[in-house]
Every structure is written in structure tokens, then in C-alpha cells.
Amino acid sequence: MKRVAWLVLFAAATWSACAQSTPEQQVINDAAAALGGSGRIQAVKTLVIEGEGTNGNLGQDLTPDATSQMFTVTGYKRAVDVAAGRARIEQTRTPNFTYFQGQAPQKQVLGIDGNVGYNVAANGSATRVPDPVANDRKAEIYHHPITIVRAALDPAAKLSNPRNQDNQSVVDITTGNGLKFTLAIDSTTKLPTRVVSMTDNTNLGDVAIETSFADYQDVNGLRLPARLTTKTDKYTTADLRVMKQTIDGEAGDLAAPAAAASAAATSGVPPANVTAQEVAKGIWWLAGQSHHSVLVEFSDHLTLIETPQNDTRALAVIAKAKELRPNKPLTQVVVTHHHFDHSGGVRAAVSEGLTLIAQKASAPFYQEAVARPHTIVPDALAKNAKPLKIETVDGEMILTDKAMTVNLYNLVGSPHADTLLMAYFPKERLLVEADVFTPGAMVAPFAANLLENIKKHPNLKVDRIVPIHGTIAPYSDLVKTVGAISTN
Fold first, then answer.
1. For the whole prediction, is pTM greater than 0.85?
2. Is residue 184 a contact partner of residue 194, using CB atoms and an 8 Å limit?
3. Which residues have CB under 8 Å from 397's CB, separation 6+?
4. What is the CATH number of the domain that holds 44?
């Protein structure tokens, strides 16, 4: 009898030891208990979040480190079909800063359905977004305590690397569908404090997307955060104050619209189309798509103004420059300003050995951009590392030899960017500028400042404007545009 009792106790002790959670599983179990219990979390079918807040203006602010430009977000509604991997966000954004598209509110509808990401325009037409955007939206589904803990409770999930950081318990999660996250919970309350996923950014390289959670409240048997703040790298990109949360309520139709679902998947970077128009002897306008460049021929070398957008565009522009004048080396690129769509090709330019010429205050930004790791999606510089060579413009710089003269000027006081440069060709009476005047655009909020800057330099006698966006236009178009704005 004693032997039987001993065996029972031994078996019970052995079962208890086997059933004891691993440290990484314990983090998830603690989070689940604090949120309302694993059973309750696993039973969740839909989650609907409504509120208001702000969106940041990532990569487009006044200075490289500024974070003051925001879109005010109203009418925010995020519906998630947890089991089906579908989500849809509806919101209206209104810029609190001078915006090149004007100050009108912008209605947005952004969705993800499995591998298909989509946008719905104001007229109801739907388009499929590139796969990298869709992948980020898939990850965004799990940037909420309920969805990430639910995914971590799945037996197919892999948990690893439990650790303690800043009074938080932290664990890495690979979900059953292969997505990777880091979850942190408060060591005292056990409530999730943040979730982090990694992605690629053309300018920032390997970046962390971090959503932090605060102001938990009781909702239908669960504890849910009423404040969600998202950062991309060091920049706040969203800050949402939740007004209403619904569990297992009506989420609406979250399926991708037919037009998006049937569209072909894309990488997001279209093939480059670079056209060349010689606008004056030794000066070519390299256009063909949304962002243009200008090639300048000196006696013994070539200089580009702008290698924009990304590797694909920048390398194609560089190739076109070498094709036009194969017997002269391309040695320099003038970067008009730090905004991501204009500086996205800087790393490609550095990989080709080009010297950057940039406004003085932007130099630290380019130094950091060149040093950042790009391992998730290796770019041209990651594959062909070269040191940064940079020259800076502090007010004015003259590039000249017996064949060509180009004057570079800081654009002072522009509400668009503090790091803007414009290029003036005195002999040809041409002005090259980016963003501040787009001929033919419906709105021109920065044109008046451009005109002021031109008039500050009596030696600037401009006949034509060669823009980085839009079409080549007579100087009189700028004057007319500014005059029309001042009379309205």
C-alpha cells in the first residue's frame, strides 16, 4: 500500500515538473491572465477600435530630426477579423502644417486580406498595394495585445529569448504564419507594454516598428489599452486615443475588393524610365516618371542634380548620365533636400563613388543614412560598400570651370524644408528647384517663398524653371502663380 502511495506521489510530482511552463511560455501565460485569460483571448473573433489621434509625417518634416508636423486623425475605425487575418482602417487625416497637396481633409481606407493589401479611393475604386506594404499591414494586425498574445498561445508559435529589460519581461515570438515580433509585459501588472516588429525602409534601412500600450480599461471581460502609440525607428508615426472598443461585434466586410484581389502582386518599385532632354548646351533634364534629375557637363566631369526615390531610379539616372557622356566621369550629385523621396537614392549614389553636395544642416542626416544597416533588403551600398564623401553648402556654393557655371543657393525660410537647395545657371538663365514650385499643380503653397528667395539675389535672371517635379515652364508662370495666390 505504501509502495502504491509512493508511486502516485512520484507520478504527480513528475507530471507537475513536466507541466511547468518554460520562462518564455510563462511570459505569455502571465500576459494572457492579465488580459482576461487564455480561453477568453482565444475565443475572440473580431476586434473593432474607434478613436482619434495623430499621424506623423515620416521623412517629410521641416528638418531631418523634426517631429512637429502632424496629421490630425478623426473618424478612426480599425476592424480586425482575428481568425481570418483581415483588417481594415478608415480614417480622415487633416494636416496641421503647410502641405503641398493643400489643407483639405483626406479620407483614407486601408486594408489587408491575407497577402492582399489594398486602398480604396474616395470614388470607391480599389487598388492593390505593393507586397512590402501588404507585409507591413499583416504585421500591424499583431500590434495589439489581444492579437499578439492570441498568436503566441497558438501551439504552432515559437517562443524564445526570454529576458528582463527596464522592469519588463520580454520574449521573442514567431507566429504560426512565420511573422516575428518582440513582446514586452510589465513585470508588476503583467499587462503588455509594447510589441515590436522589424521591416525595411529605403532611407532608414532595418527599422523597428514599435507600438506601445497604455491606459488599460475593461471591455467585455478583457483588459484593452485605450492608448496606442506607434514609432517607426525613433519617429512617432501614429498616436491613437481609443474612444470605443468592441469585441466580437460587427466588423463589416473586410475582404479585399475584387479589383484589388485580382490585381497582380508587385514589389512596389516600378522599372525606371529615364528620358533625356537637352535643355541647353551641356544640361540635360532626365525625366520620364514622377521625380526628375538634371545632368550637368563640365570640362572634365559630370554632375547630377538629384538621385531620387530609391536604388532603381537613382542607378538608372546614373546609367543614363554615363550613356550621354561616356568619356567623362560622373563625380558628384547635388541633393536638393533631405525628404525621403528625394534622398532615397543617396546610398546608391555613394555606392557608385559619387560625392554628395548638400545643404550644411543636412550633413548629419546623410552621414547617418549611409551608416545604417540594410540587411533585411540589402541595397546597392550594402552590396558595394563605399565611404561617404560630402561637401556642404552654407548659403552659397559656385561650381565652375571654363565650360559651365552653376550657383547653388540655400532656400531660406521655406515652410517645406529647411535643407533646400536651388541651382541657378547664369549663362543659360535656368533655375532648378524641387517641390517648391510644380508647374501646372493645383496648389502651390511654397511658390511665394521661392519667388522671395530668387529676388534676394539680384544676379538671378531666370528665363525658365527646370523642376524636379512637373514640366519645364517659363519663369513668368511662377510670377503668375504667386500673383494669383496673393489676390485670392
1. yes
2. yes
3. 357, 391, 407, 408
4. 2.50.20.10
